[in-house]
Amino acid sequence: MNSALQFNVSPYTSFMHETRVDLGNGIELHVEAGGNPDHPAVLLIMGLGAQMLYWPDFFCKSLIDQGYRVIRFDNRDIGLSSKIRNSGPRLNTFKLMGRFALGLENQGAPYDLYDMADDVALLIDRMGLDKVHILGASMGGMIAQIVAARFPDKVEKLSLLFTSNIQPLLPPPFPKQLFSLIEKPKSRDEDGIIDHSLRVFNIIGSPGYINQLEALQTARKLYKRSYYPAGVLQQFLAILCTGSLLQLDKQIQHKTLVVHGSCDRLLPPSHGKAVAKAISGAKFELIDGMGHDIPPHFIPYLSGLFADHFKT
Fold it and tell me: What's the CA gap between 33 and 15, in Å, rounded?
């Protein structure tokens, strides 16, 4: 572990410590780490518009208790990490989505997922880590695929959670789930934004497993920590301007586990199956009843699944 980094106790949980890491490319990432620095490191990469706190504390603690050092961070443009001010032309999101669905190339976003993967590679270096196990969720899983293919010497093993390789002609997200992510709140005050977040949790999450009080507390905590909708849009544009990862998947040699929820309607399970099919030797596990989230009910099973994968 890089002793030059100054860690403070996280304001959110006592077993994680936070710091800011200057990547040297104009970006600073806000990072939390927990567990024994001598234990194997698991780097968690979160998805579209999602702050690192979307990795539940209970999930992080479960991995720490199974012998891992856990590192989570805010991607660029979200949470407490650097924001990207875009001075370029406004892009037509719906036009890009149409071209994206047909597998056509898009350009013009302020950055793409390759740039975000470079952030991850720089973070591994700046933190003085040798090789890390990587676990990426949703868009974070797309970034993880790029890191594993382009920086193979930085990655020990790979795990991917409810993600996609965005290859052409995969079934699109269900409209209700997709538009819940990119539509604007009904009002711009705190309650309006928190109501919007709750609605998103309920639309994309695991049916019957969402604790409404916990979801409300999480939404309020996330809002108070950071609210930057421009970053969510720019991350969405990054996905639309990245293109298929199918050829990259074929280069990945790491032992890979792909996990997906049977009730995921944002990225239907066929997306995860396509990733597992494209990566040589990858294992695929479908979790019955899980949506596009990590509810407490599934955490003991999920954390055990990933911990075992990283051990074997």
Answer: 8
Residue type, 221: K
Closest CA to 73 of 88, 89, 54: 54
Residue 34, beta-bridge partner list: 70
Beta-ladder partners of 160: 136, 258
| Residue spans of alpha helices (H) in the chain | 57-65, 93-101, 113-126, 139-150, 175-182, 190-204, 212-225, 229-240, 246-249, 269-278, 299-311
Q: Is 189 exposed, middle or buried (0-12, 13-18, 19+ CB in 10 A)?
A: exposed
| Structure confidence at residue 1 as a pLDDT band (50, 70, 90) | low
100 backbone φψ class: left, alpha, beta (φ>0; ψ -120 to 50)? alpha
DSSP lists the bridge partners of residue 28 as 22
| Arithmetic mean of pLDDT, 32-60 | 97
Stretch 172-191: mean pLDDT? 88
pLDDT at res. 2: 58
What structural domains does the chain harbor? Answer: 8-311 (3.40.50.1820)
DSSP letter, residue 183: S
Q: d(Cα 269, Cα 138) in Å, to the nearest integer? A: 12
Angle CA 312–262–114, to nearest 5: 65
Please check whether residue 98 is in contact with residue 172, taking contact to mean a CB–CB distance below 8 angstroms. no
Residue 308's pLDDT band (cuts 50, 70, 90): very high
pLDDT bracket for residue 18 (50, 70, 90): very high
pLDDT tens digits for range 84-142: 988 777 888 888 888 887 778 888 899 999 999 999 999 999 999 989 999 999 999 99
